[in-house]
Amino acid sequence: MRITALAGGVGGAKLAHGLAQILLPENLTIIVNTGDDFEHLGLYICPDLDTVCYTLAGMANPETGWGRAGETWNAMTNLKRLGAPDWFNLGDSDLATHIERTRRLKEGQTLSQIMRDFCKAWGVKHAVLPMSDQPVRTIVETEEGDLPFQEYFVHRRCEPRVQGFRFEGVGAAEPACGAYEALQSAEAVIICPSNPWVSIDPILRVIGEIDKPVFAVSPIIGGQTVKGPAAKMYRELGIEPSALAVAKHYRSLLTGFVMDSVDAQLAEEVQGLNMRVFVTNTLMKSLDDRMQLAKEVVRFIGEAI
Amino acid sequence: MRITALAGGVGGAKLAHGLAQILLPENLTIIVNTGDDFEHLGLYICPDLDTVCYTLAGMANPETGWGRAGETWNAMTNLKRLGAPDWFNLGDSDLATHIERTRRLKEGQTLSQIMRDFCKAWGVKHAVLPMSDQPVRTIVETEEGDLPFQEYFVHRRCEPRVQGFRFEGVGAAEPACGAYEALQSAEAVIICPSNPWVSIDPILRVIGEIDKPVFAVSPIIGGQTVKGPAAKMYRELGIEPSALAVAKHYRSLLTGFVMDSVDAQLAEEVQGLNMRVFVTNTLMKSLDDRMQLAKEVVRFIGEAI
Fold this sequence. Notes:
Number of helices of chain A: 12
Structural class of chain A: alpha/beta
Number of strands of chain A: 14
Helix content of chain A: 40-55%
CATH architecture of the domain at 3-36 and 46-57 and 110-137 and 170-304 in chain A: 3-Layer(aba) Sandwich
Largest interface: A-B, 30 and 30 residues
Oligomer: homodimer
Distance between the termini of chain A: 11 Å
Mean pLDDT of chain A: 97
Low-confidence stretches of chain A: none
Largest sheet of chain A: 7 strands, parallel
Strand content of chain A: 15-25%
CATH topology of the domain at 3-36 and 46-57 and 110-137 and 170-304 in chain A: Rossmann fold
Strand order of the largest sheet of chain A: 5-2-1-9-10-13-14
CATH class of the domain at 3-36 and 46-57 and 110-137 and 170-304 in chain A: Alpha Beta
CATH superfamily of the domain at 3-36 and 46-57 and 110-137 and 170-304 in chain A: CofD-like domains
Shape of chain A: globular
């Protein structure tokens, strides 16, 4: 089975990790949201790309959902002492990623070239692509005005009430080198359990129409998100957060939808949206959970297409 | 006694530290070479300024002569793994200095403003000024061509034979804010035991004529430098490295010269250059040595002016 997966940070990274355990490198490409990327302290930071790569490399911090395991914080401690903006935490090992990425971008290398080299250095064998080599910036439109994503997400801790989203630069952004080919050769596309509004929508906007069967895994379980503000965003936009709401969000795209057992009572209504439904345990607490869900999703796709 | 000291890295930093122990903040200003400054990995690095500040703050690594005590190297280890240029070592805590300095410079702050803030954060009470807020770049002219200073000093380990030096940008560089006032109000100027060619000459070129009594401490002891390439440079320029050669180098400037006891036999010849001479132990192995030399130099100046 040849798959292209679309992923944001934590939840998406976990399923991508599971897929990488069961699919050969030539059979899996992961296209990652870069709408959350930003410049901070003069460094170019790609939170979702780094989370996916660190997770696939087995280097991710399992506690936080971002950053690296066994991290030290001496640069950050000293940046704070010097009065530098300290709302975005950067570990010492993680800093190397941002410093070297920024250096190479300034030399004119593309983000996809750079991430390919980094993945090689980190021992990540599956292709991890930024959605685009051109900048796309997710802006969260809130009651307190427009906020760049990290400003909303980290600095303001998702507190301002959301009214909408826009993706600056998306009109001019091309899919990154290799993304088009991956989508062409894929038998199916998996939308990983990431935030539909701010992790997946930017990717979908960049890659445009998909002429392959698309399957989504709900990031909402029992009306809540495992991590992140997706459920809060749904509520503030006047939509009851649920697996059903996610299925409706992607509606026209989907051949099939994977949702958690705790939401089994919604399965019939989702089927009514004209898509196949698979109900299983989607909460990924362990590496085994990730592999198990990946296997089940791939099996479901195999049966559906 | 109100003193302005001119300093480069290690040796200069040690005497500056000694002077800071015995002079009140209002009576000591240290003007530091910035000809060694360079951009590396997108960061603006000031080796001499940082060595002087770290030394005065009691944060310097006593083993290396550069960088910070108790340093960790996780960013560097990871930069190497990513294939980044790794010939210039940057510790995790030290990185914070370069990141925040670079960020502020890009915001339009001057180097002297930034270092004043940093000194405050580090608890350095004496004024430490860059020689200029404009860039001056020391170029080492060698048999293998021109090399920017750090390229020569760190990357090439001072191996290429030296033919001369030039200081790019020195014509347009003004003394940093406060340097002129410090020189005006000083009773004497001390040239610390730093490399005359590449640490002190750039400062002298920037600040121009000094109409105060100037005293130098020889960085050459028994024909050798405690650290750094000064003796090697003298030899390659066809000059026998000695305290006498240093006194001749600064000749027209000096009211007095301080040299080590092992060089006592040269004292008479130095006096013949029309300057007062003070012979003592100038090797600073401990903080006590630094204070002792500082006291003796200040006493010598007091008697000489």
